Amino acid sequence: MKNKAKNEKVVVVGGAGFIGSHVTDALVERGFDVHVIDNMSGGKKENINPKAVFHQADIRDLAAIQPIIKGAKFVFHLAALPRVQYSIEHPVETHEVNVTGTQNVLIAAKDGGVERLIYSASSSAYGDQKVMPLIETMTPNPKSPYGLHKYVGEVYARVWSEVYGLETVSLRYFNVYGPRINPDGAYPLAIGKFLKQRQAGKPMTIWGDGTQTRDFTHVRDVVRANILASESKKVGKGEVINIGAGSNISVNDLAKMIGGPVVHEPPRIEPHDTLADNSLAKKLLGWTPTVTLEEGIAELIKCYQVIKKNQFSNV
Question: Which of 146, 151, 173, 187 is catalytic?
């Protein structure tokens, strides 16, 4: 992906967040006129690229986001209230953001003459399936409001393509990790949580018996998928595409990879396993993962500046 100084307007919705800020950086580097929309409920100011135009706005407010999105070539929709457990505890609030908010972004994109919208979906839509790996032709079986919300967003995106002619594509992310990952919150991703706990000299908390498996996908690979999805001539009709590494690891083995003591807490409602079939991404986007879990964890350990404390003996 070489730089292309197009100076064309693009909008990153949720651009102050973990993944959105990395997408913003990549678009700025490619020479786009990048506008970021974020209400800062989960984003951080230090994540926002200084070369991007920042708009503090909430996607639940259609009138506020319409003039920002108007005239953009691409919209990358990454804003959401994530986390399975939080959606279980706050179903109304998360629905308003994840479903109504997504509808508002689609309306603004349609009315604003946007060429293509790239929607950040989630492997949570699959829920528990009897067969692995997970492939896009499977019937979604979400186990939480969050998984349902993200699936509804996919359907909305497809309908907007069919009914209104707005090009859309949905990328189903599998357990994204990397620099700027948020280790806090009610239900943080295991890697970020484990690293923060070890940085503090505390044992790693595992929910359940730790045999559950996850397909961890590095944020740089996810960013590349977003860029390719905006460029590909093979998508734009509401396609749903897995973006996952195509390999999984148990939470227990992840803890062993990081190294250190663990404690177990009661299990939470979540799919037991995730594993992506990423063949469609290769076919439609020309995308394959490039960052191994070992490489990604080693990089994060340096980010957390904990190597000198010798807390990570097994890496």
Answer: 146
